[in-house]
Write a structure and sequence with these properties.
24% of the residues lie in helices and 28% in strands. By secondary structure, it is an alpha+beta fold. It folds into 3 domains: 5-91; 95-223, no CATH class; 228-334, no CATH class. Strand 5 and strand 6 form a beta hairpin. The chain is elongated, with a radius of gyration of 38 Å.
Length: 334
């Protein structure tokens, strides 16, 4: 049996040599090599010192196996050191985004505003920081309507408000409930830590689906209020959003083709038999016709989407009272 040197390698770069030396010093210090050493390996401290000096200088016929063991052990030591270094990071509790980096998108048609939570006033509700929902709807998105440069009308009531979460959930989209009116939306607030919308039960009785968690979007939908007698339906008042009515092309008052919403479409959306009823309408300032219309007359009425006013093709329904801007409601009577 050959008892002399069986293999030697001295051409290893000095940087790698230092890495091996440090790894073995650590292993010798913590006793890893001794703890896992197989009985066949009889490497003495002298061999380890020689290994430090010449990296792969192994003596003895049986020490080729010992070299393989040391190489394997060094890899285990490296993995152990890496796992120790990473364990602190793994044990740190996750932290969510702070209010300073959080925001809500407020959307109206093609316009949108990114509302940063850090810029909005807060209130305290049962020990939780919160923001009133009305703080998200600014006049820059829904400006006031000014009449004769003297009277201002808040236009927020012209819209329905859909709250949508990060996951796309909303009370209307997923549960079939109507979107919030401004009267309801104005009373709600959002808990900052969870971005959960809350509507006070002692003021309004809304389904829990409206309490959207992780709210990310507030979408404003233009609507017409539909005022009707209490004995016609469970709810005396309702509304129909513009998106629920199919648009048509009509010839406007300037003789041009324009996309429009038939006023009759808002009625048939909630009333199955509209023929025997009477109708009227009013703008946000209360201005409108002084007498009711028949169903046949209402069917000639349209909301012009570009001109943003009402128009009737019935030649008896003329004048400013039938060309309303900012139409707010359609009244239905027996």
């Amino acid at each position: 049996m050959v008892t002399g040197q069986v293999w030697r390698e001295t051409a290893m770069p000095s940087q790698l040599k230092r890495r091996f030396r440090n790894a073995f010093r650590y292993a010798r210090h913590v006793g890893i090599l001794g703890a896992i050493a197989p009985p066949r390996c009889r490497c003495s401290a002298v061999h380890l010192v020689q290994f430090h000096n010449s990296i792969f200088h192994i003596t003895g016929a049986n020490n080729v196996f010992c070299f393989l063991y040391i190489l394997t052990a060094s890899c285990l030591v490296a993995v152990l050191i890496m796992s120790i270094g990473c364990s602190k990071e793994d044990d740190d509790p996750p932290t969510g985004p702070s209010p300073s980096s959080e925001y809500i998108w407020v959307i109206l048609g093609s316009d949108s505003l990114q509302m940063w939570l850090r810029d909005l006033p807060t209130i305290t509700i049962e020990g939780e920081q919160a923001i009133r929902l009305n703080e998200f709807v600014t006049d820059s998105l829904a400006p006031e309507y000014v009449v004769n440069d003297s009277t201002n009308y808040n236009t927020h009531g012209l819209y329905a408000y859909q709250i949508i979460g990060d996951d796309g959930f909303s009370a209307s989209g997923n549960r079939g409930y109507p979107d919030n009116t401004w009267a309801h939306f104005n009373m709600g607030y959002m808990i900052i830590s969870t971005r959960r919308a809350i509507f006070p039960d002692d003021s309004i009785d809304l389904a829990s689906a409206y309490n959207v968690t992780g709210m990310r979007y507030i979408v404003l939908h233009r609507k017409f209020d539909m005022a009707r007698p209490a004995d016609m339906a469970p709810d005396s008042d309702a509304f129909v959003e513009w998106k629920a009515v199919t648009s048509v092309m009509v010839t406007n008052t300037d003789g041009q083709q324009e996309s429009a919403l038939p006023l009759s479409g808002f009625v048939t959306h909630i009333i199955p038999n509209p023929d025997t009823l009477q109708y009227n309408m009013s703008a946000i300032d209360g201005f409108g016709p002084t007498s009711a219309m028949t169903w046949a007359q209402l069917q000639t009425g349209y909301w012009l989407l570009t001109s943003e006013k009402t128009m009737f093709t019935d030649t008896t329904l003329v004048g400013g009272r039938y060309r309303l801007r900012l139409l707010e409601s359609i009244q239905i009577s027996l």
